[in-house]
Sequence to fold (321 residues):
Amino acid sequence: MMDWTDRHDRFFLRLLTKRTLLYTEMVTTGALLHGPRERLLAFDRAEHPVALQLGGCDPAELAEAAAMGEAAGYDEINLNVGCPSDRVQNGRFGACLMAEPTVVAAGVAAMRQAVKIPVSVKCRIGIDQMDDYGDLRAFVDIVSQEGGADCFIVHARKAWLKGLSPKENREVPPLIYGSVYRLKQERPDLIVVINGGIQSLEEASAHLDEGVDGVMIGRSAYQNPYIMAAADRAFFGDQAAVPERREIVVQLLPYIERQMSRGVPLKSITRHILGLYNGLPGARVWRRVLSEEAHKPGAGPEVVSRACEQVEELLARKAAA
Fold:
């Protein structure tokens, strides 16, 4: 979810669901150690609970980066061992590290020693020719036994490190959910979270019925974010009413004003909310107003308000017809 789940997207998602755990984009240890760490680690306190996702392989650097994340206030540190992009491979982090479980274990152990907050690992069910269930189980066993990891978020697709683009790696390899179910059955002491191709809360519930401990929803939550509005009621027993879309927009406006006062362009926020009305008759109007007007000089929160008003008027007319 690099370039997607930035702090503005996470604040927006938090207006939809208060209880689900949000994850940052993957941040490399090199960027944190040698780059603008304050900007990279910045987040709004309203985002809690939120996990910092790291990319890296050097135990000392991972430990230092994890300590930075804990000091910044994050609730969890997550090591990404699932991203298959060429840039990630060239940096020796991401999915290529599934071929080096002892390296991952050393990194996890170093992070666990450096912080008091939970440390989790996100991986695939396999890579290249290492795609047998036994390979997944061996990887998990080494990282859990040698590194102390007790939580694995498993994308139920293998990754082809050569020959497929990152987009193709999200779509071409088949989803094999059974491997993740089996991992939980055979390693019941571990926290196992399933990920990959999950489109709705109904699908998430079906996966939970198979025994996994949690469900991660990625691109569907970005492209059709309103599916998350019922998550607190469905999975956490929250009895509060599911927020309406217009309520979410109203709550977002003060945040937009604050961020713009700090120099953040309106389009940097509105690009994350284009999918709010997906599936409704006004979705095209909402996207058009935001896409055409948010980038213009002088554009401010009134653009979002106007888009919402137009959509809600259209929906009211449809309901009355």
Notes: The beta strands are 22-28, 50-55, 76-81, 119-127, 151-159, 191-195, 214-216.
